[in-house]
Structure formats: C-alpha cells, structure tokens
Design a protein that fits this description.
Blueprint lengths: L24 E3 L6 H7 L4 H7 L12 E3 L6 H12 L29 H21 L4 E10 L24 E3 L10 E4 L3 E7 L8 E5 L3 H7 L2 E7 L2
Parallel strand pairs: 3-7, 4-6
Antiparallel strand pairs: 1-2, 3-8, 4-7, 5-6, 5-8
Helix pairs in contact: 1-2
Length: 233
C-alpha cells in the first residue's frame, strides 16, 4: 500500500500475495507445472506430490496445492525476470544467395545472308572492273563503235589475226584501224569490256571500231555508240 515510488533500504516488500503464502496453500495458475511450483517454493516435485496425494504430474489451474512454505524472494524475482524479459529473437542465419551460374555462351559465327553475299559478290566484281579501269593505258581515245557477227555477208568468220569466230562465239574481239590501235593490243571498251584488237574491216578507219557479238540480234541491240577505248598494251 505505497503512496509513492520511494522505497527505503532494509524495508520488506510483498512481491506477490498469490505466490507468498503463510497458510501453506498455493493457487495454481495457467501455465504452472509441478516443476515450476517446486522451484518457487524451494522444494521438489516429489514432495509436492506426497503433500498433495498426487499420483501424476497433472495439475489444474484454479486448484490449490499445499506447499508448506513461502516462495523465496530470489525464486520469485527470477521468475518475474524471466517472464518480463523480452523474448530473444530467433537467430537469423545469413543465407547466402547462390548466384545463378553464368555459363559462357559461345558466340555463333555470323551467317552471311543472301543479300549480304550478293552484295559481297557485286562489290568484288566492281573491284575487278575498277582495277581494269585503273590500269595504266598507253592510249585512250573516244571512238564510234558498231557491232558485227561471224556470219555477216562477205566475211569468212576468221579474223585478221587468225581467230575463228565461228568456233569462238563468245570471244571478245574488236576490229580496228591498225594505224590507230595496233593489232594484237589488249583494250578496254566502255560497255563491252576487255577485248583483243584482232580484226580489221574495210569501213573501219580512224577512230572507229567494230565489236564482235554472237548474234545479229545482239548486233542490232548494240547499234551505233560513242565509247571510250583504253589501249592497255
């Protein structure tokens, strides 16, 4: 029955009227066991069973037990400290997260698409043509170019240098004026390609050439053109 929080050393305090008894009787509370009660009153479980004629450890809240003594201050304080102490948080073990295994992925070689392949081929062809065009020419001139075949009237189909055009329908041959382009010369004709100056003709005079083609339709399609001719050797 204190009126303030002030207490004096040497005074006695009642800790719990239920647990400290002078009658030797203890009222069982929820959660009590014979072991806990024996510890509170400084006795043994066996003594409690003998004093109370118990044949088992089963006890019921609300019932009374004969304890034949008082709970010690030390035991009561220990119980109160255990009851009031904050429950220790369960130990948390550090769980190392396993990093997903990074497997080396071998990069597949890039497969060239059809369009890229065609582009590559066209580039190479242009490079060949460019190399031909870039060859140093001993002479370059502009000429009038017509076309002829091996079966044009009045010719044998064999060139002035002995090439049989009937047997070589795909030969790259031009007829020239030897005074302008020497026979046997390698030439590059714009729109026709690399050829050999291997033939002559009665109407081929000055800056005029005749390009050999396989058929009369090819000759007709060629018509008459003004082209550039490079004499390569």
């Amino acid at each position: 029955k204190l009126t303030s929080d002030k207490i004096m050393a040497g005074e006695k305090l009642t800790i719990s009227s239920e647990e400290t008894t002078t009658t030797g009787q203890y009222t069982i509370k929820a959660g009590d066991t014979l072991s806990k009660i024996a510890q509170k009153f400084g006795t043994t479980v066996n003594n409690l069973k003998v004093w109370n004629n118990l044949s088992s450890d089963m006890i019921y809240a609300g019932s009374t037990l004969s304890v034949k003594g008082q709970a010690t201050a030390a035991n009561t304080a220990t119980e109160n400290a255990q009851t009031n102490a904050p429950q220790a948080a369960p130990k948390q073990e550090a769980v190392q997260k396993e990093q997903p295994k990074q497997e080396a992925v071998q990069q597949q070689p890039k497969q060239e698409t059809k369009a890229e392949a065609e582009t590559s081929v066209n580039t190479e062809e242009k490079a060949v043509q460019s190399n031909t065009n870039n060859q140093e020419a001993s002479k370059e001139l502009t000429v009038t170019a017509t076309a002829y075949t091996a079966n044009d009237g009045g010719i044998s189909g064999v060139t002035a240098t002995g090439i049989d055009l009937n047997k070589n329908p795909n030969a790259k041959v031009i007829a020239v004026d030897p005074n302008v382009i020497p026979l046997g010369s390698k030439v590059y004709v714009e729109g026709y390609g690399e050829a050999t100056a291997a033939d002559t003709g009665g109407a081929i005079k000055g800056n005029k050439i005749d390009v050999f083609v396989p058929s009369k339709s090819d000759a007709s399609n060629w018509g008459v053109k003004t082209v550039s001719v490079k004499v390569l050797n």
